[in-house]
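Issue 218. Parser rejects a valid record. Input:
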Amino acid sequence: MKVGLIRCMQTEDMCPATTCFKVMDTKKLAFEGVVEDIEIIGVNTCGGCPGKKAVTRAAEMVKRGADTIVLASCITRGNPIGFPCPHAEQMKTAIKKKVGESIKIIDYTH
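Output the parser choked on:
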């Protein structure tokens, strides 16, 4: 699995993505059942509200080899600031439309 990770720009100054990387490394939570090695192709933010840059950033990571785009839990579950992004579903839908059905989308990490 070749992963492109997209995180919330609002939380990047308080979260270094340690738990996201740890669950990928140990194949826990969102990565439970993954049998192949997980390679991180890239990590980027959504670009800030409302997350429009996530679409082009996801497409660029696919262009560079990602077969899976992961929206970090800071976007979809609100970790660690306590509320999820109000644009998460719209962001996910736009990414799917841009990268195509062959690219897997995982909408949380932990």
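Fixed in the parser; the record now loads. The chain has a mean pLDDT of 96.
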